[in-house]
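pasting for the record
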Amino acid sequence: MPPRPYSKLSLQMILVVPFALQIFGTVGVVAFLSFRNGQQTVHDLSEQLILKTQQQVDAHLSDLLNLPLQIAQMNQQAIERGDLDIQDQRASERYFWRQAQAFEQLTYVGYALTDGREVGAGRWLAGLGVTLYENLPGDNSASDYLADSEGNRTQKIQTYDYDVLGEDWYQDAVAAGSLKWTRIYAAENLSIEQTVLGQSLAAKQTVDLETGVTDYVAIAAAAPFYDRNNQLLGAICVDLLLADISTFLRSLQVSQSGEVFIFDREGLLVGSSSPEPILHRTNGEVQRFGWFDSPDPLIQSVGQQLIAEFHTLQAIEIPQQFSFRWNGERQLVKVSPWQDDYGLDWLVVIVVPQSDFMAQINANTRTTILLSLLALSVAVGMGLLTARWFTYPILSMVGAADALSLGHWNQQVPDSHVNELDRLSDAFNRMAVQLHDSFTKLEYIANHDSLTGLLNRRTFCLKLQTAIAEQTPTSSSFAVFFLDLDYFKLINDSYGHVVGDQLLLAVAERLQACLHPTDVLARFGGDEFVVLVQNMSHRGDAVRIAQRMLDQIQHPFDLGGREAFVSVSIGIVLNQDGKAQAEDFLRDADIALYQAKASGKARYAVFDATMFTNTVERLQLETDLRRALEREELQVYYQPIVSTATQQLIGFEALARWHHPSQGMISPARFIPIAEETGLIHLLGWWVMRQACQQIYQWQQQFPEYASLSLSVNLSTQQLLQSDFLHQVEQVLQATSLNPAHLNLEITESGFIAHEDITREKLHQLEHIGIRMSIDDFGTGYSSLSYLYRLPVHTLKIDRSFIKRLDLPGKNFEIVEAIVVLAHKLGIKIVAEGVETVTQLNQLQAIGCEYAQGYLFSKPLPAHQIRQLLHCGLAASSVARFPNAGA
């Protein structure tokens, strides 16, 4: 509301004249009493100030020091429980990056392993925000890296000499055997000067000691961690700068010139409110000043007085208070022990000059004596007369303010007859209206997604928890739907985030159209949506709702003139197993969502107990796969490829096989998808290629009659998309000496089509160096044949699903024949996969299929069995000579 014009009496006119005499008289009485009781007042004020300061210091030290202890203990437990995999360095870096990002008080957080490897993140390189740190095993040097918004490395900053196993904090943690504070220690001056992110950055942690700014000196909360056999694995470290303690002490207002110091029991400074430094460099080493050599003469005097009073600092076991004279002034001193359960034993010393209080008291006394001469008569009646004029609106405003603090926003203070009070009440009323509007907006922001306006995760969980609490044996069921857009990242990366946001808004609108007004729709971030549907009579209702959402999303989206197609995968969980927490529902819905995506996307999956079991088993299998290569559990098997016309051996397909130590042979159908999802496919794929190329080359050298043997190796799309893909292939060929003409790389149809622009260029480069390309599982992908004209494809491998139906009635023979004819027209050769019967072989010969592989000839065999077959002379073998022929 607009301010109103004012023409009322001023508060100054009403109050100044009638209350002047009353005030003067009161001041006179107070002056007399304050003069008589000045010394007692000084004593009381000093005690109160020292006590308040002591409480502030204690509270701040507790808050400051508890955080590193809690973080160190949490990280120790996370490693020992297996929640944090110390073998996954990148995951550890991101983990510590998030902690350093969340807690600005932490200078450094990380761990060091017994092999000398260190992973951590922190802020001790000034001006760079949170940076990552790495120390590799056997290498007495460390490196610092910049990190992006997700905690991933972006750029190395510097490398320097560093042996983490020799650091004080590591040795203290291992020696203590449990969570402890380490000795206070100093690191070397570290500096960087280079161009980072396109800007010139010159950041130094320290400045020359001559300027008074000191080195990186810290105390660390450190804890060792062990494996299940109680063998030491390493130690956790969470650093805290001593400078943070001094910074806080300097911020305290301890009278006008009071100071606060913190000593350890050896008399060395831990923190100080004095502007003088607490550190100095002697013989190139950073050391702390003690009370005996501090550049601050007050600290030296206090230390001498402490020794005179108590003989030794170790003798101070309870808070002590005394006074002494320094520079002609009386100093009030309180020293209090500060200890914790993790090894800290410090002394907090507060020093307050008595003159800070006396000067003010003396000045006040002189002033009040002069005023008291004028305050001999007091107009009490005038005060009573005018009191009501201003106390009533003030009390009304106090009541309204109390109501506002309780969230009752509709408050209006009545008008006053006093000009200033009426303006104040008017301003208060406007403020109440604005607060109501602001808090309404804040409440909306706190509960809704900023892009779509849907509920956010926090509010959805509250509503879901309410639905759980309101469930009774006779009430109807409800279901939680967890939705994730398929291929959203492709659209976001291709068209940009603005178009991606338009798509998310359109998806939210379509999902809302599928639901009833009582249903709850929320966005958790990214392309994840969650739906709570209540009042369902049976499971079929959830399935119908899921299908309705699938059907709505599959229609094309118009995104500013661009037509885009996406699908959605849905995980469904029903309230049928007694879950009590909202997070349990979301976890199970997420598991069901993963099952839907693993089954081919664009579908739904309803959670059941086996999914949870499978998820746990899959996580264990992923962990085992990470160690499989180093434990030599993986092998390369070789399946012969033969000519259908002569049945001569012409080459092999290399296939990865995993012999798990407890589960036996694990199918590639189980571990290859895991490798692709986790990124292990890079390591696995290049390992298979090197092993197979080396083996084929050895056989070519050992058996000259097989010098023309070819090798087919499956190629992951992720490998093909690597920026150094061609360099990696050339390195393999160079290391194994294999002729490129004998290497066939196989990729699926979907791998070609999804990234055709990148694929086409790289495949032409492979063709240039002599490597041949094959399309694996032909006919099961996009079924688009146009790419056969555009890409340098030499061989098509017809999927076994077509071959196994050749014996059955129908059009299967004609389909295979059409593929063969088309390929021959384009100059492309054909390999039939999964040939198991002589009938199938005869039919393939009849339609001109050149090559075949399958159990009719041989199952995949390890290298030593293939070597035996080659040694027996298998160059012109018949079907009967192959092991497992006709199996």
